[in-house]
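User: Hello! My lab partner asked me to get a predicted holo structure for this protein. The small molecule is magnesium ion, SMILES included with the sequence. Please write out the structure tokens.
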Amino acid sequence: MINKLVIENLKHRWVRTSLSAAAVGVQVTMILTLVGVSYGTLEDMARRSRGVGADILIRPPGSSIISLSSAPMPQKLLDFVRQIPHVTIATGTAVHAIGGTNSVTGVDLNEFSRMSGGFKFLSGGPFQGPDDVIVDEYWARQNKLKVGAQTRFLNKTWRVCGIVEPGKLARLFLPLPLVQELSANTGKISMVYVKLDDQANLPTVLAGLKKSLPEHQIYSIEEYSSLISVNNVPGLKPFIGVVIGVSIVVGFLVVFLSMYTAVLERTREIGILKSLGATPQMILGILVRETVALAIVGSIAGILLTYLTRWAIMQYVPGNLTQVIVPDWWPVATLISLTGSLTGALYPGWKAARQDAIEALSYE
Amino acid sequence: MSDPAMLIQVKKLVKKYRMGDVEVSALRGVDLNVQKGEFIAIVGPSGSGKSTLFYILGGLSSASSGTVLIDGRDLTQMSDSERTAIRRELVGFVFQRYNLLPTLSATDNIAMAQYLAGKKHETDGWFKQTLDLLGIGHRLGHKPRSLSGGEQQRVAIARAIVNHPALLLADEPTGNLDSENSEIVLKLLRDLNERLGQTILMITHNPEAAAYAHRIVHMRDGRIVEHP
Ligand SMILES: Nc1ncnc2c1ncn2[C@@H]1O[C@H](COP(=O)(O)OP(=O)(O)O)[C@@H](O)[C@H]1O
Ligand SMILES: [Mg+2]
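Assistant: Hello! Below are the structure tokens for the protein in complex with magnesium ion.
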């Protein structure tokens, strides 16, 4: 019976109900999209590292996992690595920032192809001229590029010579020597990828490398991709925390306002219920149920909306961001919206519960 | 002191409202006895304390001093939650402005009263008989705003008596109705009283309405007076 009243009440002021639920929903979407983009983008980075097909990764001393390092390792390091037993291929890459969080990666196409099994070209092919750039499908989609199209970065116009399937190393590729030159790092590389003859030799080679290159950061590729996580991106966790905090506050304000006006508007109904013998707890209970209904409906809408944001990201900025759907976070986000909403309903509910029935009934 | 034939025994009932620094005496020593099965009309000028007396009898408001026995139980000694229980179990209210819950259908308005009293919503036997008596059986699915004033008031009466209260308090039940609907409602109240033995206290301005009662009690300036 109470539930019927709750539903009828919500239906009765359906505009306010839908707006409040939408506001709650947007909070939920915000949290889930942020979390989904964080996980998705990092997972994609990890996937691209694995896509290289290497077994071991060597990074310069003192670099962080996520940062765009330039190229501070001498290329001669490759010769040293190549002569280690069980190493079949060692190739270096250089990374150069081109603005925003984007970068272009210099590769030795031959070595890289041997290691990764080669790029899968969706259209076009390898470098031909000195101004040629290879891009992956996501980058092409985001920037509306086709083979033969011109694109500008680093104050230079480049020609797209090939579009490759995503999932290998990076999104923009130039020949290694060109990137070294552009970043004024001739003869230097920022990563070394190492492939072994047999997985079984991984521990031995890893240990040997760590011993002979104690300053460098040396990982198995599995270890490296597991390090690419939310915990290792500086500032990401606090940022997610701030967004959650803002969500709680906004949810609180929206529901506070909605319930507060609902209580004022329903002074008489509350008086009627009291004249019929409803206890203050029952009155509070009605408001709480209305709030919980709002928060749940809003959360479900918010969860559904994340499919839309994922689609939009895939459509417009696949080169920069990847969003995954994070069902693990659905209950968390719902709980967050419930917390904000119930806190917002507290004062209006308390006001309604202790409202004087007589005043309410004689209220014109 | 409590007489079993007496449903209500009010002695020296005083009620003061405080408005800021000012005290308003709404009731200044009311004595009233009501027997089970009586139908009493309370008349008096506006502001004479009629509604205030009802609110106290119905457990909606507390007395400042005096005693109010209903069925032998003293309301003035009760806590808020005990008075809430009285409203659920012992009294039914009918108001001038009907006061139905606007978002619920007529049936659900009645069912809500049953729910609050912890009773199941039953649609047979007594319930059906009462609705037939009230002549609203066919209008039950409607929400209040699509019912006429007379129909709303009859639904309100059904809601007030559905839990078989010892006492029905009607505060100007015909105040918003035309003479035709007033007559229907007044006849209904009389029928309830005569057929079901329902004890009724009814506030009214209208001498014709008061004529339906067994006894007329006059109020003036917070007191019950012998002659108007
Ligand atoms: N909630 C209240 N606060 C202050 N004064 C009130 C309140 N309710 C009623 N009064 C005063 O008490 C007196 C009696 O009012 P009421 O019982 O409503 O009379 P009646 O129903 O006979 O018109 C009036 O003077 C009225 O102004
Ligand atoms: Mg009055």
